[in-house]
Specification:
The protein has 368 residues and is of the alpha/beta class. It has 17 helices and twelve strands.
Length: 368
C-alpha cells in the first residue's frame, strides 16, 4: 500500500491532523466518527463543534489545523512499502474493531493483507531463559506451519524469538511497535525489522517520528491482543507487561494460553498464575489447535507439504519410541528389531524433517 496521490492525501490529511489534536484521544476520535468523517468535522462551524461537547481548546485546534505537523507523515507515507489504514477503511482488521478502544489509524510497513489472516500472539519476558527462547521459537515455527500469522511486539527476548520462529518456517509474522515505524526499538532488532517488512508486516498507531515512551507499550499491547484469536505467554514474571497483555486478551474475549514452569523459576510464576486464573495450560501446539478449533478449522489439504505425514510405518514406529527427553540409540536398539545402521539412517531422516533433534551425548529428543 503506497500513499502517493494528491487525491488520497487530500482526504487522509484530515485523519492525520485530527489524530494530533491535544485532547482528542482514541475514544473521543471514535465518538466523533459516529457522526462525521474527519473531513466533514473540519468543515463544521464553531457552534456545531461545541454542540458535540468538544472543549474550546479542541475546537480552536480544529478551526486552525496544524498542517505543518503532518508534512513528515505524508512524506513517509509516499515511500515504498509504507501505508496507513483508517478505521473506516474496508481492510481495517475486523478483530481489532471488537476491542473497546481500537486505534483510529494504523500506520503499516509491509503486506497489509496479513491483518485479515488468523493470528496467534506470542509474548513473554525480555530476559528469558535459553529454554524460553527455544520454546517460543519452536511454537512460532510450528504454528506458522499450520497457517497462523505470528503476532508479537518486536521486543527483546520472547518477542524476537517468536518473530524469528515464524520467519524460519517461511511463515508470516506481524510486529506491533510502540514507536513510529520510521525507527526501530530496540535498535538491535533493526535487521529483524527489515526482514519482517520483506514478507510480513509492521504496525503502529503512532505516527512517524514518535520515540519510545514507557506509556506507549501498554497501548501497543492492546493491539497485539486485539489482532489475535489466541495469545500464548511463554515466560513471564508476576509483575510484567506480558501479564498485562494477557489480561487485556481476556477482557477482549480472546483465548489465553500459558506454558507452565518450575515453581522455583521466577520467570514461570506469571504463567503459573495465569493457569490458576483460567488460562489453558499448554505443552504442545496441538493443545492450542484443539482449543481454537471452534474458530479455526484446519484443512489438512491446505497444510504445507512438510506438515503432512510423509513417514512410512517403520519410521513412524521408531519416532514413537523417541521420547520428548534425551533418548539414546542403545535404548532404541534394545526396544526394536532394527539394526543400529537402520536406526541411524532413519534418525537422520527424522531429524531433517524436523521431528527430532540430536543432543549432547549421542542422544536424540523428539520435538514434535
Amino acid at each position: 500500500m503506497n500513499i502517493a496521490t494528491d487525491s488520497i492525501n487530500e482526504n487522509l490529511k484530515y485523519w492525520l491532523v485530527l489524530s494530533r489534536v491535544q485532547g482528542v484521544g482514541t475514544r473521543t476520535f471514535l465518538n466523533l466518527l459516529e457522526q462525521h468523517t474527519p473531513e466533514q468535522l473540519y468543515a463544521e462551524s464553531t457552534a456545531a463543534l461545541s454542540a458535540l461537547g468538544l472543549k474550546s481548546a479542541i475546537i480552536q485546534a480544529i478551526k486552525n489545523p496544524d498542517w505543518a505537523s503532518i508534512a513528515y507523515d505524508l512524506e513517509w507515507l509516499a515511500l515504498e512499502n509504507n501505508g496507513v489504514i483508517t478505521f473506516n477503511d474496508a481492510n481495517y482488521p475486523s478483530q481489532l474493531k471488537e476491542i473497546s478502544d481500537p486505534p483510529p489509524i494504523l500506520f503499516i510497513r509491509g503486506n497489509p493483507e496479513l491483518l485479515a489472516l488468523p493470528q496467534i500472539a506470542i509474548v513473554g519476558s525480555r530476559n528469558p531463559s535459553s529454554i524460553g527462547v527455544e520454546t517460543a521459537f519452536d511454537f512460532a515455527k510450528q504454528l506458522s506451519q499450520f497457517g497462523f500469522v505470528i503476532t508479537s511486539g518486536l521486543a527483546l527476548g520472547i518477542d524476537g524469538a517468536s518473530h524469528r520462529g515464524a520467519l524460519a518456517a517461511q511463515g508470516y509474522t506481524i510486529a506491533v511497535t510502540g514507536t513510529g515505524l520510521d525507527r526501530v526499538y530496540p535498535a538491535r532488532h533493526k535487521d529483524l525489522a527489515l526482514e519482517i517488512v520483506e514478507t510480513g508486516l509492521m504496525v503502529s498507531e503512532f505516527p512517524p517520528g514518535t520515540l519510545a515512551k514507557s506509556n506507549h507499550f501498554p497501548r501497543r499491547n492492546r493491539i497485539i491482543s486485539g489482532l489475535c484469536q489466541g495469545l500464548l505467554v511463554v515466560e513471564a514474571a508476576i509483575q510484567s507487561g506480558s501479564l498485562i497483555t494477557a489480561k487485556m486478551a481476556l477482557e477482549q474475549n480472546r483465548e489465553v494460553f500459558a506454558i507452565p514452569g518450575s515453581i522455583h523459576n521466577p520467570l514461570a510464576r506469571g504463567c503459573n498464575a495465569l493457569i490458576r486464573e483460567g488460562a489453558k495450560l499448554v505443552e504442545t501446539t496441538q493443545d492450542i489447535l484443539e482449543e481454537l478449533n471452534v474458530v479455526y478449522q484446519q484443512d489438512k489439504e491446505m497444510l504445507p507439504v512438510a506438515m503432512q505425514s510423509t513417514l512410512d510405518l517403520e519410521q513412524q514406529t521408531l519416532l514413537n519410541r523417541v521420547m520428548f527427553s534425551p533418548t539414546s540409540i542403545d535404548y532404541l536398539v534394545e526396544n526394536s528389531d532394527l539394526s543400529i545402521e537402520s536406526i541411524s539412517s532413519m534418525l537422520l531422516i527424522l531429524e531433517l524433517q524436523g521431528y527430532l533433534e540430536a543432543i549432547a551425548g549421542g542422544c536424540y529428543m523428539r520435538i514434535k
